[in-house]
């Protein structure tokens, strides 16, 4: 009676894609190994959940807990009921909605700048390959060795006195969008991905009649969805949580994002409402990741294009 | 369709490698020309230069009488089939087939009609909405072929299109390509390293080695009148036996003697035959015939003999070759002696 499910389990385990790893089926049949492995897995999983999800769950709980309860019983689960009003107060009184919108505008602008620069630069260096492509790639790589903090002052000077434009970008979102676009890491990442796309497909497209622009939009970009996802995640998360640079270049409170406003309003805001505001600010990255994780993490999807 | 002409075409890479050296040949309208040779002989480079994917270091290529050295791939009006299919993975079969037409501004109705026609010709009608990853290897290669024929170009360029298919599918697709080419009568350059493919498909074959053209001719010409030792041993399976002429008892130190395995006869031949005695090393039984690996002194030879009488390893036997079937090659140059007048110099010593 139980032979079938056991057999099925055994077959599943024999599939290397299941990732059973170093422990063989024969080892797994031994009670000691099975018990030890199961215990280790459980402890590891529990530890990871407590470390990774615990703070987020506590924040979610505290966002709808009265301030007094959070202070007196921080680990209790709603001893005097939930305070849903924290969320509405955070949205209306603390004006989280406006900062939330600012954050979205900044993140989308930064993301767009980074995607445009990274894909076009990567395409030029990897696919079009101008004469000095290797030199340029090398120079880009060297900039990765310069700590970001070192560039803070020169970058600020550039934003205050930008070349050609002669108009300060301070208190303008361009002050965040433009420097975000100049990401050598993204360009290198994109170049390496494009390097691994099959050249024959580009050549077939050129013979079919593609010019460089059409090759970029109709062939290279659609084949690059996984790396676009990765760069998008990096870009959006970095922009969402960036604190120092927006603090320096956005002096007008009405234009500042959540990451800058939340620490500023902490002193004059009730703890429960403040925690609710923090929870709202965390929601977008978490939900975004949960929705798009599958498309971000899957393979390049080139199967069938070429015979490997 | 268009004639294609190479005029002293040379390709030298930046590292100094001379991939193609002064290649001159003409391919007629509607002709099926095969470039064949071992890896690194420059056959693919020559094809890519016609496609416009490689620059030309020296010389000129003409397609339909137009010099195309500085013409972009798009404007050369050629279609190429790649060894690795090179299908667009994010497009369906129909989109793959119609992409070239779309880029050339054809209207949607015309694109749909030609895609349907190509799909019907290649038995792909049921797969038009599928992505390449959902197709088998043979189907993918047919899509690659369809992408070429749907554009109705002036020439097809095929770079080892069958090398990724299994043996049975290769034979089947080979016949399909031939049928298609004959029906469309489109000038075709076909690159392969497989001499069987070259012999069975080409109207003419160009044999290349280290960037230089060794010989160009019909399959029969290459087989019966090879220009040099390389062509003689490259074309034909098993390849031609080439030994110093004195080994066969021919009084001539200046030449090598070449003969095909199927020309070897068991036993002493007639007066016109060259005779020799050799030891049997290995016998490969093929059902209808036997491949006998011989050793003449320290030189290995191969004979293709009728299955009876059966020979056995270790035996020593007398063999004969009709003098007219022996081709002499210069020891130093490797060039055939007066191609076409075979065996005229033979002077048996005994």
Please identify the top-level CATH class of the largest domain in chain B: Alpha Beta
Radius of gyration of chain A: 25 Å
What is the CATH architecture descriptor of the domain at 96-265 in chain A?
Orthogonal Bundle
Quaternary structure classification: heterodimer
Give a quick account of the main beta sheet of chain A: strands, pairing sense, barrel closure: none
Shape of chain A: flat
Q: Element order, helices and strands of chain B?
A: EEEHEEEHHHEHEHEEHHEEEEEEEE
Q: β content of chain B, as a range?
A: 25-35%
The CATH topology of the domain at 96-265 in chain A: MetI-like fold
CATH superfamily of the largest domain in chain B: P-loop containing nucleotide triphosphate hydrolases
Succession of helices and strands of chain A: HHHHHHHHHHHHHHHHH
Q: What is the tally of helical segments of chain B?
A: 8
Distance between the termini of chain A: 44 Å
The number of strands of chain A is 0
The CATH homologous superfamily of the domain at 96-265 in chain A is termed MetI-like
Class inferred from helices and paired strands of chain A: mainly alpha
- Helix segment count of chain A? 17
Q: What are the low-pLDDT stretches of chain B, counting only 5+ consecutive residues below 50? A: 339-345
Whole-number mean pLDDT of chain B: 90
Largest interface: pair, residues per side: A-B, 25 and 32 residues
Can you tell me about this structure?
The complex is a heterodimer of chains A (308) and B (350). Chain A is mainly α and 308 residues long. Chain A has a domain at 96-265: MetI-like (MetI-like fold). In chain A, 69% of the residues lie in helices and 0% in strands. Chain A has 17 helices and no strands. Chain A has helices spanning 3-14, 25-28, 31-52, 54-63, 67-72, 85-92, 96-128, 133-143, 152-160, 174-181, 184-195, 199-208, 212-220, 225-241, 244-249, 258-265, 271-297. In chain A, helix 4 (54-63) crosses helix 17, helix 7 (96-128) crosses helix 11 (184-195) and helix 8 (133-143) crosses helix 11 (184-195). Chain A is flat. The model of chain A is unreliable at 1-19 (pLDDT under 50). Chain B has 350 residues and is an alpha+beta fold. Chain B has two domains: 4-227, 3-Layer(aba) Sandwich (Rossmann fold); 230-330, OB fold (Dihydrolipoamide Acetyltransferase, E2P) (Beta Barrel), CATH 2.40.50.140. Chain B contains eight helices and 18 strands. Chain B has helices spanning 43-51, 93-103, 108-121, 137-149, 167-184, 195-201, 219-224, 229-234; strands spanning 4-12, 18-27, 32-36, 58-63, 66-67, 78-81, 155-159, 187-192, 204-209, 212-217, 241-244, 255-259, 265-266, 273-285, 289-296, 299-306, 316-322, 327-330. Chain B has a six-stranded mixed beta sheet, sandwiched between helices. In chain B, strands 13-17-14-15-16 form a five-stranded antiparallel beta sheet, with no helix packed on it. In chain B, strand 9 (204-209) and strand 10 form a beta hairpin. The radius of gyration of chain B is 24 Å and the shape is elongated. Chain B starts with a strand and ends in a 20-residue tail after the last strand. Mean pLDDT of chain B is 90; it is low at 339-345. Chain A binds chain B through residues 198, 200-201, 203-211, 214, 218-219, 222-223, 301-308, and chain B through 51-53, 72-74, 78-80, 82-90, 99-100, 103-104, 131-135, 137, 140, 147, 151, 164.
